[in-house]
Structures are given as structure tokens and as C-alpha cells.
Fold:
Amino acid sequence: MYNRENCNENCAFCCTRLENFGVSIGGNVVLYDINLHIHCGELTGIIGPNGAGKTTLLKAIVGELPFTGTMSFLDGKGLRTGCPLIGYVPQRLDFGPGTPASVLDFCSACISNIPIWLVHSPGNRRRVKESLARVQAEHLINRRISELSGGELQRVLLACALDPIPNLLLLDEPVTGVDPRGLKIFYDMVSALRREHDLSIIMVSHDHQMISQYADRIVLLNKTVLAEGTPTEVFQNQCFVNLFGQQWNGVYHGQEAATAIHHPE
Amino acid sequence: MIEVWYALVDSIFPFGWVEFDFMKNALLAVLLVSPIFGFLGTIVVNNNMAFFSDAIGHAALTGIAIGVLLGLGDPLWAMLIFAAVLAIGITWTRHKTGASVDTVIGVFFSTTVALGVVILSRGGGFNRYSNYLIGDLLSISPQELTLLVVALLVVLVFWGLFFNRLFLVSVNPAVARSRGVNVYIVEMLFSILLALIVTISIQWIGILIINALLILPAASARNLAANMRSYHFLAVMISIAAGLTGLFLSYQWGTATGATIVLCIFILYLGTIAWKTVRSGWNKHRSETDRVKSTTDHKAG
Structure:
């Protein structure tokens, strides 16, 4: 398991703290009274039923939605620092099926202001290639982004979120469109990156088997935090049983998990 | 300045239809307006803002009406200010409610048009303003051409500085936000720019068809383009090609220029759809042949 003492000087950011965090949209309370600490090098999995406000939580942390309460970022010495660098991988992109944008267009637009409709500087092209290589997606560089499969798109979005390496990485896993093998590759990749770069990761997951294998901590969310702790603790919690109808018996491992996903009951 | 253009046209276009100064002016106007609309259209289509731009175009009527009420000889300033206010209002509402603004736009849209028509039709004088409905490109003056040059420069500078941010916002606002883009400001600036450009061009293109000029080039380019560069290049080229053809045909036929240009772009649009269909059919055929071939090879091996 990851050792916290590896946290070096590069990690100027060691804790994200949400206190009395809440979000209201158009008068409806979507999230309330959330208190969370997220440490660096830790993968926190967010699970919860549909409409629990999982995506809303990520959007509020990014700054896309206004929130109440406080969100603070503390560095290793416990001193407050400025805004952390946030990498965000959304569930999906908003544009229509025919949008003529290549992967290179999207990634370049993320890292520079050199107009993508005019030119791609050689430096940017190299940088995009390197960050795509990090997620084994180099070959997709000239593909239309609207033609990618769910898993490919997810990896491209991850590559962009990791350039530059953020302090806090927010992942919103798509509900559908990613095949089980692609999902496993994605989780492995995220897990490795966390160790390598000492990232804090918050991951919204719909796959309890997968997240239980990879997360250090699970947060069960339904408008507020119902339970948090290690995967085993949360999956045996009464709130989890009430919401999902069954207790989680232990944790699947390796091949077993992949098999279980390939052949659901 | 304009004499240089006249001399240039005489030397490169020795055709009868550009011998008059008003045709030379119109030719320059087409060469300025087409790229402007080609560029703006790319984002309008990406962001599904067609209804927004249509509403802004129609709101010009109310702008004119306000100008008339204030007793202004040239209502352009009143139109510009009104369009900007409307654009700010709609964008603000969209951010405040977070919901689809189609209904909000629909409500504003019909009300402003009604208000404009009521004011302008007092005493049965609406006919005086009917040229705003179909536009008159051939009446453009050299001073007004300067305005279009400025408009083109503004659009190019804006596209140079803000396009990447605009693109990210259109792809996913939360991603844009995480890259430090102020989504609200960028959308607001684009809405205002769009409103101003549409309003400036109204008197030459016409309220009824200006939206087609904005949407069609980008919609055609989407059928062929693979990335943002070819998207822009094709949109601008289609816009210019149709603009020139439309200007020539409208001169030959004695028809309204703006509407003729729109018909020309539509024909190009149909062409791009046909091309796209043929190409995808061909690709499908090729991939099937490849598969059959590889299966045969496999069996043979």
C-alpha cells in the first residue's frame, strides 16, 4: 500500500478539506452538510445511487457550480496555500456527434492559447503526444474526438487532465460506454499515476467491484455523506445495505473481478 | 483607399458586372462579410446557438424602433446597444437558471419583434423599414465598408485570443473551468460580439435571412472537416464562394443579394451531404472488402 512518507517537497498540497459544503441549484438542495478530508496519494471513491449529487460534488469542487460552506487546501506543513491545480475528467463531452475536432485540437486547447483553428505549434504537438503516450493513446492523436469509443475518450480526457500534473484529480466515471476491459485498464492506470505523482484523487464510480479494489477510502453519498471508511467498512454499513439492497461480501481480486464483470449472474 | 480597391477590381475582374462602383463596393462587402460569418458560424453551430442568433437578428427591429422614438437619423447605435443588452440578458439568464434557454429566448424574441413592429407601424409607416427585412447589399457605401473592415479585424483578433477558451467551454464547461477559463466571461463576450456583428450586418443582409448566412457555411463545413483547422477553412471558403456566386447571380437576375447568396450556400450544403454520404458508403464498402479479403487470406493461410 502507498506510504505517506513518500510525500516530498513537490507535493505542496496535502489535504483538501470540505467543511459544511453544500450546493443548491435553482432553490433545490442537491448537497448539504458535507465534511470531507482528502489526503494526497489517496484515492477516494465516491459511490451513491442515481441523483445522489456525485457529479454535482465534482463540478462544485472544480468551480463550475457555486457552493456554500468552505473548501480549503492545506500543504504538507498544514499551511493554507492558494488554489490547487485541479485536473477534471468529465463523464462525457457536450458536443454533437459530427463536431469536427481532433484529439490534438482538444488537448492543445487545454494547454495553450495558440489558436487551434490556425496552427498547432510543434512544441504543443510534442507535448500532447507525450501526455497521450502516458495513457497509451498516442495513436488517437489525429482522430476525430466524436468518433472515439467510450474507453478511448476517457483515456484522452485523463491525458489532458494530467498535463500539467494536478494536485487534485477529479474523475467522473461514465455510467455506460466503457467495456469491462477498458475499465480495468483505466483503474490500473489511475492507480499507478496516483503512486507515481502523489496525486489526490476523487473518483465517482458506478462499479462497486472495481472501486473496492482500488480505492483507499470510499464515501457513500446521497445528498450528504452517509458513510465513509475503507471499502469493507462502507460496503458492510447499514446505509449501503439499505440503498443497494445487499451487503458486499468481501472484496474481489484480480481475475476474479474481471470474470465477475464479464459474466454478470 | 477605396480608389485603390476600384483600380484593383478593374485590373483583376475585367467583367461587365463589376464596372459600376456600387458593384465594386458590394464585391468588397461580400469578401468582408463572408469570412466574418464563416468564423462566427463555427461556434454558433458547435454551441447550438442558432436560435439565439436568430433572436438577436430579429431584435434589430426593436433597436430601429427605439432609434426612431429617440429621433435618431441613423438607428445603428440604438440597434447596437439594444442587441448588446439583449445578448447580456439572455446569457445572464442562462447562467442564473442553468436550464435550457430556448423558452426564455422564445419569449423575448416574439415580444421584442412585436414591440418593434408596433412602434414602427404607427400611422401605417412600416414600409419605410421593410428594406431591413431583406437587406440591400448593393446600397453599401465606402464609409460602411470601413465598418465591415473593423468588424472583420475585431472577429479575427477575438478568434486569435479567445478561440481555444471558447472551444473548451463549448466542449465541456467544467473542463474549461478546471483549466482556469472564466466560462461566464467568455460566453458573455462571444454573445455580445455575435450580437454586434449580426446587428451591423442586418441592413445589408436582412433580418429574415441573416441567420442562414451564419449557420449554413459552418453546417456544410462540418460534413467534410476532420479538425478545427479544416472546419474553419472550409466554412470560410464555402461562405466566400457562395457569396461571390450569389452576388453575380443577383446582379444577373435582379434579385435580392442576401437571399441569393443563401440559396447558393444551400446548394453547396446539399453538395457536402452528398459527398459525405458517398464517402461513408465507400469507406464502409472498403472496410467490408478488407474484412472479406483478410478472412480469405486467413483461410488460405
Q: What stands out?
A: Residues 13-85+167-265 of chain A form a domain with the Rossmann fold fold (CATH 3.40.50.300).
